[in-house]
Design goal:
It is built from 2 helices and 12 strands; from the N terminus they run E-E-E-E-H-E-E-E-E-H-E-E-E-E. By secondary structure, it is mostly beta strands. The protein has 2 domains: about 90 residues, Elongation Factor Tu (Ef-tu), domain 3 (Beta Barrel), CATH 2.40.30.10; about 70 residues, Double Stranded RNA Binding Domain (2-Layer Sandwich), CATH 3.30.160.810. The strands form 3 sheets. A 6-stranded antiparallel barrel has the order 1-2-11-10-7-12. The protein has a 4-stranded antiparallel beta sheet with strand order 5-4-3-6, with helices on one face. The longest helix has 9 residues. The model has no long low-confidence stretch (mean pLDDT about 90).
């Protein structure tokens, strides 16, 4: 199984053999522990639940502590589920580290994007600005007309407009692993990763070839 829970640390750069600079995002990936195995004969599908990040027992509910104790795990802060087809080599309580990945692997990373609050259409949807002349005084960043009058007489569902921006689940696909440091539990992937520094991300083997 190639999947881990991690915490985004920020961006830096590394250099390859030719001296070219490669921008990478550093992730503190693992160690993660198998807290539960969901099998097709019982739950109807195959998946593995991983736990990451130590937590104080008083910060967890009794149900959470009982769930982790049943799987032989210490109190963990974050739990995430990974769909897995082959469950034969996995057992509850096992530890997974960045060693499951190698340099050159392709991964998908899921995180929560940065929250931008209420944003207008130019920032949110990349609308163009309206003319600053010809009599208008305060409409240069406005969206303009939203619909017609008699026909259709309403605004179509999905019309782009101002509103809340960010704080949504985002997936970055097919990122290349350029750094694996088992001693410091560090994983470096080429390019950017969703979320702010310190946010939890899910790293899994790529789904699209």
């Amino acid at each position: 199984m190639k999947g881990l829970i991690g915490k985004k640390l920020g961006m830096t750069q590394i250099f390859d053999e030719t001296g070219a600079a490669i921008p990478v995002t550093l992730i503190q990936a693992g160690p993660c522990f198998v807290t539960q195995i969901r099998r097709p004969e019982t739950e109807g599908y195959g998946a593995v639940q991983l736990g990451f990040g130590s937590a104080k027992p008083k910060r967890l509910t009794g149900g959470q502590l009982g769930h982790l104790k049943r799987g032989g795990s210490a109190p963990l802060r974050y739990l995430r589920e990974f769909r897995v087809k082959n469950l034969e080599d996995l057992q509850e309580g096992a530890e997974l580290t960045v060693r499951v990945f190698e340099i050159g692997d392709r991964v998908d990373i899921v995180g929560i994007s940065k929250g931008r609050g209420f944003a207008g259409v130019i920032k949110r949807h990349h609308f163009s600005r309206q003319p600053k002349t010809h009599g208008q005084s305060d409409r240069e960043r406005a969206p303009g007309s939203s619909s017609s009058t008699t026909t259709p007489g309403r605004v179509f569902k999905g019309k782009r407009g101002p509103g809340h921006m960010g704080s949504v689940r985002v997936s970055s696909q097919n990122l290349r692993v350029d750094l694996v440091d088992p001693e410091r539990n560090l994983l470096g992937v080429r390019g950017s990763v969703p979320g702010a520094t310190g946010d939890v991300v899910i790293i899994s083997e790529r789904r699209k070839q």
